[in-house]
């Protein structure tokens, strides 16, 4: 499989042992914005990656 095909293929991420209160608040935040939990989490992850790229702690994305 080509590198481009691998980049386009979705991956799975399972998180365990998240405090129930944190998960509840995350679900409420997604609902308040009428978004899915997945979409909210992806936005938060991408924002953190951009922040670290700006600080020079991660290589810049293409």
Concise structural overview:
With 62 residues, the protein is mostly helical. It is built from 3 helices and no strands.
Q: How much helical structure, as a percent, in the residues?
A: 55-70%
Beta-strand portion reads under 5%
Mean pLDDT: 92
Kindly name the structural category: mainly alpha
By DSSP, the count of extended strands is 0
Number of helices: 3
Oligomer: single chain
Radius of gyration: 15 Å
Shape: extended
Low-confidence stretches: none
Characteristics of this structure?
3 helices, mainly alpha, 62 residues
What secondary-structure arrangement, pairings included, does this model have?
Elements: H1 3-8, H2 20-32, H3 37-54
Helix pairs in contact: 2-3
Descriptive notes:
It is a single chain. With 62 residues, this protein is an all-alpha fold. It has a domain at 18-57. 60% of the residues lie in helices and 0% in strands. It contains three helices and no strands. The protein has helices at residues 3-8, 20-32, 37-54. Helix 2 packs across helix 3. The mean pLDDT is 92.
């Amino acid at each position: 499989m080509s590198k481009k095909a691998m980049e386009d293929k979705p991956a799975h991420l399972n998180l365990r042992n998240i405090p129930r209160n944190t998960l509840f608040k995350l679900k409420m935040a997604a609902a308040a914005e009428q978004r899915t939990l997945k979409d909210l989490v992806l936005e938060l992850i991408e924002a953190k990656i951009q922040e670290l790229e700006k600080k020079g702690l991660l290589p810049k994305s293409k």
